[in-house]
Amino acid sequence: MWRNLKRLAVAILALSVLVAPALAQEEIFIPMLVYRTGPYAPNGIPAANGFRDYLRLLNARDGGINGVKITWEECETQYNTKLGVECYEKLKNKGPKGAALVNPYSTGITYQLIPRAPIDKVPIHSMGYGQTAAADGRVFAWAFNFPTTYWSQASAFIKYVGEQEGGMDKLKGKRIALVYHNSPYGKEPIPTLTVLAEQYGYDLQLLAVDHPGQEQKATWLQIRRYRPHWVFMWGWGVMNQVAIKEAAAIRYPMDRFIGVWWSGSESDVVPAGKDAIGYKAGNFHGVGTDFDVHRDILKYVYNGNLAEAKANNFGEVLYNRGLVNAMYDTEAIRTAMRKYGNRAVGGEEVRWGFENLHLTEDYLKQIGFGGFVRPIKITCEDHEGNGPVFIQQWTGETWKQVSDWITPMREVVRPMIEKAALEYAKENNITPRNCAAEQ
Fold first, then answer.
1. What are the tens digits of pLDDT across the range 1-47?
2. All domains in the chain, ordered by first residue
3. Count of CB atoms within 10 A of residue 417's CB?
4. Which of 5, 28, 139, 336 could form a disulfide with 353 if both were Cys (CB 3.0 to 4.6 A apart)?
């Protein structure tokens, strides 16, 4: 009897050894580089919560992506480039097939990871941030920055200002100031704004703010002397709050103060109270919670507990951005599955999924994002998708869309992207791909 029991135990153990790896193979691992601590935590927390909640929704409602479970692990970067690279190295090989993709959530970290991506075979999605030249997929085969880029945002700002002034010809002689985070991120719009200044004849003043951005009195004294017709802000974290307060202190008109999409969240305006009313910012996705995806999250992730959901930043601008980011990533994985099968897919396969991503309006409605984001199509040449943006304005209680969707100046931006990409290719001995030959 004991001999038979022993044989049974050995058989069960052997079976568990065989089954466990097989089950593990049907999991997709996504690393989460987050910053829930440090000076940028007020912005990092809602973005991380939104991304996490969408993955939780897919697992709870659909059993994952096409029934394949998603797993993830957070690693704290504090928005520090060195820590971000360490997090990437720690997580890139986790999961049965390694990381399916990576979202650096920092332009500085993105710059460091781009050279590693083709070696590690891990695609990078720097959604609306990172190196703008990566929009040229012929050179940056492993980096994607859709649905739009900083250079496109800068051109959309100028189009919006031209419209407000009564026509693009009215920009001549206008004074525009750029208050920017003194980092690779903050410097991204400068080339576009400089080129457009030459084209339209406005005067551009560049004002750098050092990390983390708590000391800005000298900057706003310069603005008071310069008396710009418009102020753009490329800020992040506490810098945004301080800038809005300083703008109010010198009585700069808030409706002529516009932030990039990373300077337009609740954490940027609420600390300034009534002084922030009228402040504007760019955006590329819906605001609020009146979308099917939010209703599903409330049902499947929070079991209808709205208070708990709100405690996790439910519906805030950066929470919504996390949702959008996670949706794009998981749809790239789903696209890869259409070619490689409903199974765990690795980085090389997901890279193909990103490059063949095509989300139509009808499909977006099916997955709960109807009216939340615009349709998009990514190709070998175009890793941006040239997505439009709109301007939102803070009412004192909520963000409200106050412009139509603005199409970026592709005729200006795309040649700049291609030139910068070819310069990068030359510096790094990269032979641009022949996309036509790959089709």
1. 444 544 444 344 434 433 334 344 589 999 999 999 998 999 999 99
2. 9-148+288-377 (3.40.50.2300), 151-283+391-409 (3.40.50.2300)
3. 24
4. 336
